[in-house]
Amino acid sequence: MGGWAAWFLRKAGLERVVLLEKGQLGQGASSRAAGVVRLQGGTPEAVRLGRWSREFYLRQRDEIGTDSGFTQQGYLLPCFSPAEVATARDRIAMQQEVGIPVRWAPPAEVAELNPTMAPGATLGASYCAEDGYIAPPRNVSAYTAALVAAGVAVFEQTSFTGFTGLTGLTGLSRGAVATSRGTVDAGLVILTGGPKLAAVGALAGLTIPAGGVRHQVAVTEQHPDFAGTPMVFDVPSGLYWRPEEGGLLFGMSNPDEPPGENRSVDWDYMALMRERLSALVPLSAGLALRRVWAATIDYTPDHLPIIGPAPGLDRVFVASAGGAGMMWGPAVARAIADVALTGSSPVVDVSSLGLDRFDESGRSRLPADPIALPFPEKTP
User: Fold this and answer.
1) pLDDT (mean) for 320-325
2) Residue 141 in 3-state DSSP?
3) Disulfide: which of 38, 98, 143, 361 matches 3 by Cβ 3.0-4.6 Å?
């Protein structure tokens, strides 16, 4: 979020843009994600953010000379009960109204689109051929190259420690951003931080309902039948998969796991999800795992992004992709840059996406995005 937001600010004409990174660029979930980019969001805002990000990934090479490796793969969201079918049809109608090419695929077409799935396992699925994925490490390289080329001042191993020189609780004076290496002049500030956004906000005197939780990903050994098959998201279990390196990449989050920064592999939960995957993709049952990893990814209680001003702090803004950094990241970054500069954004209507949608306990007045990983419903 911080990387692309800094690039958009610089491209908008700001003379000096400084990016603070506590560690190294991309060392967190940015280089360990699954990279899924789908238009099939559960709300109109989610659809617009996904569409804008996909279009950005497609034009990256022309704009910055490198890209994030977007691959159009298609995405199936299968249904397993009549209630899920009804919900999916309503969702498709909403998505089509927003303008994306999504449609209903009956069971026979699901089997044709992805013949590795167990016959008769679903009642059909929503399908968008334009969904795909990026290569997360390549994405880190892409925004690093973009930052350098644009002249953004990147300070790694530099922590944000708060503000100095504030005029009461309003008004950000120049020289107000304190860091572990001294102060930085600032006319405006955007607070990001992914899984650590709440801690970053606390340093600024803000309460931000955003948390971090473990997410696990694995890649199986190769099998030729996976080549060219669409990605699949089993929404009820929170399990998704796609082709990767000739095998199958699959990822998951445990909804019952408390928030935290655990980055070890939970082999028991991995085994549980492998059972579900084997039931839906029988070929996967006999395949060994080539790679397994875990990362801490961010979330918000309603699984929606945060894009807006920091209450009580003039010229300070807050941005979070709510666990969808690859899928919504460029769009959220562009939107927060727009909001910081002009107060609004053509990317998406941000009027309902600010911190003011949360009450004192962190509950959102918005309904949660129903097409999201099963993150916890509360922040720490």
Assistant:
1) 92
2) helix
3) 143
